[in-house]
Amino acid sequence: MKAVLFYEHGGPEVLRYEDFPTPEPGPEDVLIQVKAAALNRLDLFVRQGWPGLKLAYPHIPGADAAGVVVAVGERVQDVAPGDRVVVNPTLSCGHCEFCMRGEDQLCADFRLLGEHVRGSYAEYLAVPARNVVKVPDGFPFEEAAAAGLVYVTAWHSLVTLGHVRPGETVLVVGAGGGVNTAYIQIAKLAGATVYVVGSSAEKLERARALGADVLIDRSQEDWSRAVFLKTNKRGVDIVVDNVGQATWFGSIRALRKGGRMLVVGNTSGPKFDLDIRYIFAKHLNIIGSTMGSRSDFATVMGLVFAGKLRSIVDTVMPLSQARAAHERLASQEHFGKIVLVP
Q: Which of 184, 189, 291 is nearest to 240 (CA)?
């Protein structure tokens, strides 16, 4: 099969489009002919590497995929060749205490497709049968693949852990990334008033089209102060921050007393100075979250398939152009997800 892989960490130039052996499905696995694989910023981090990351080279990046099942293992019963499926990228053991409670995102042997094991930038992909959800006939593979990681991440943190309620105010820090487009829509679906901080008027207008109520252009004003003033100096109930170092203090300042901070990423860096008086004096709840359970995945994908939530696809490119796709993702000029098609 053809796949995009790399033999060492580095920039987009380390990505190669080459032949690679087609994986063999195990007894509980399915083999999928990949029809679409979506990019996430995680893919850039894995390619660049970080201390402690151990990969089996050559490594194939990619957490998101949708396609058609072409073979199943001998123990697989609920999935058959010909089924259209989308992949849940959270890999778990299925039998530890967390998996037995339905919290497979906490699995003692947690692995993420494309990070800890070879991923979806390939013509074929083998995953456990329990990690696929069937895609309705006619639903675009590109939109299914684009929804996976970002929607399960957003649903688990905002709904399962964050307990967003109708009438609350939710601030999403960032307008254009795939996960932020998911947060905007889920918050709106839950009945919240949605504040969005963006880097340009163009991205903010597109966020408005997704349901954002209050738009703040960080290139024109101090966004944290603006949120504080636009809420009559109250602050918002929930802040979603996947940026980290560059925005954490502003996010803390934008919260009301007793507010919830959802920490779901660190695209600008993981380390910074923090004055903890803001946390205990304001009675803040700091909630860390990554990925979600199989139940979360099935629930939110059902809403996507029903049209209540939408996948926002920025660009569709051939798999052979993965290098250019990484460059576009790193430029932050996109709005929504970039998708590769084998």
A: 184
Cα–Cα distances (Å) from 58 to 10, 50, 208, in that order, read 13, 17, 42
Cβ proximity of 317 and 296 under 8 Å: no
Handedness of CA 67, 71, 74, 78 (dihedral sign): positive
275 Cβ contact partners less than 8 Å away, ≥ 6 residues apart: none
What is the homologous superfamily of the domain 2-135+312-341 according to CATH?
Answer: Medium-chain alcohol dehydrogenases, catalytic domain (3.90.180.10)
Q: Taking a C-beta distance cutoff of 8 angstroms, is the pair 325, 39 a contact?
A: yes
Strands, E assignment, the chain: 2-5, 16-19, 29-38, 66-72, 84-87, 90-91, 111-112, 124-128, 132-134, 169-173, 193-198, 214-217, 236-241, 255-263, 285-288, 313-318, 337-341
Pair of tokens at residue 264? 């779901």
- 0.90 exceeded by the pTM? yes
SS3 (DSSP) at 188: helix
What pLDDT, on the 0 to 100 scale, is given for residue 101?
95
Residues with Cβ < 8 Å from 125, sequence gap 6 or more? 23, 31, 32, 34, 65, 67, 87, 119
152-288: CATH number: 3.90.180.10
Domain boundaries, the chain: 2-135+312-341, 152-288
Q: Which of 194, 188, 182 is nearest to 155 (CA)?
A: 182
Report the C-alpha gap between 220 and 201 in whole angstroms: 10
DSSP secondary structure letters along 274-327: --THHHHHTT-EEEE--S--HHHHHHHHHHHHTTSS---EEEEEEGGGHHHHHH
* Mean pLDDT per 10-residue interval, the chain, length 342 residues: 98 98 97 98 95 94 98 97 98 95 95 97 98 98 97 97 98 87 96 94 91 92 92 96 81 95 81 84 94 97 98 97 97 92 97
152-288 matches 2-135+312-341 in CATH topology: yes
Amino acid 3: pLDDT = 98
Cis peptide bond prior to 58, omega within 30° of 0: yes
